[in-house]
Design brief:
It contains 8 helices and 10 strands. With about 270 residues, the chain is of the alpha/beta class. It has an 8-stranded mixed β-sheet, with helices on both faces. Strand 8 (about 125-130), helix 3 (about 135-140) and strand 9 (about 145) form a beta-alpha-beta unit. Helix 1 packs across helix 5 (about 185-200), helix 2 packs across helix 4 and helix 5 (about 185-200) packs antiparallel against helix 6. The longest helix is centred in the last third of the chain and has 18 residues, at about 225-245. The radius of gyration is 20 Å and the shape is globular.
Length: about 270
């Protein structure tokens, strides 16, 4: 089960866009939704009315949707969960989702999130994670999250999964706070590339790499027009480079990364290299 919630947990819409990308790439089929009356305040999360052909109107209610897919390269079905962060009854909301997870026989849950951070848009988007056990992060070479503080429904659902005995991994992309307006394709791409290691399957990226490059070029051009912003970006670059220590990846890590790459892209039956 791959989960993302819009709102507080979704800086730059990076996480929800990642799930939408997967749904489209893996041809997901809708299988239901949670009752929105149970979890949403419609004065906060208002329904949307649409004019169709200039005459007819349709009304769309914000809700949490579920869809499924059977991606090539995986011997398991994937369940996608996406919707706005609920306004109330979070524990009941999580219990509802866990019931759906049980119905689908979910063996692992991956939650995706994005937060605003002091990181430079010109550097790789940091992705950190937490899991039900440290070995799960070590196997996927994910930097461990050090965050402690207020959390959203993503963190609450992750904890509910662990408490229910379902292995869960939570991935968070750090979106540069000075360019928080969505979309942020570079953060979406970073989440998906990290997710590849977690689920150990190749994810079609489509045009996301080109979108990420264009996003970075556009932000850089805007920053160059403002000396104060340019100086701030340089300070973030220096701070980030210092924290990373500019250390080269060890030979063992390179070999492990290459093996994961080959495993995900190994041809299946009937395919040629």
């Amino acid at each position: 089960m791959i989960v993302a919630f819009e709102g507080w947990n979704d800086a730059g819409d990076a996480a929800s866009t990642a799930v939408e990308h997967l749904q489209l790439s893996w041809d997901a089929t809708s299988v239901g939704e949670l009752n929105p009356d149970d979890y949403y305040d419609f004065q906060v999360t208002r329904p949307t009315i649409n004019v169709v052909d200039g005459v007819s109107r349709s009304l769309e209610w914000a809700t949490t949707t579920l869809s499924t897919s059977s991606p090539e390269g995986l011997d398991q079905q994937v369940v996608f969960v996406k919707g706005p962060e609920p306004n109330f009854r979070w524990r009941a909301f999580c219990a509802d989702l866990l019931e759906r997870a049980e119905q689908f026989g979910v063996a692992k849950v991956v939650t995706l999130g994005a937060l605003l951070a002091d990181t430079a848009h010109t550097r790789p988007i940091p992705v950190t994670g937490s899991a039900h056990e440290t070995a799960a992060l070590d196997r996927s070479n994910i930097d461990r999250s050090k965050y402690q503080g207020p959390t959203g429904i993503t963190g609450v659902f992750h904890d509910a999964c662990v408490q229910a005995g379902i292995p869960a991994v939570s991935l968070w992309a750090a979106v540069p706070h000075y360019v928080s307006h969505p979309p942020c394709p570079k953060a979406t791409l970073a989440l998906l590339r990290t997710l590849e290691d977690v689920v150990d399957v190749e994810i079609p990226m489509g045009t996301l790499p080109e979108q990420a490059e264009e996003w970075q070029r556009t932000v850089s051009e805007l920053a160059e027009d403002d000396e104060e912003v340019s100086e701030y970006v340089r300070s973030l670059e220096e701070r980030g480079d210092e924290q990373r220590g500019l250390e080269e990846t060890s030979g063992e890590q390179l070999a492990a990364d290459f093996q994961r790459y080959l495993r995900r892209r190994r041809p299946g039956p009937g395919q040629s290299t």
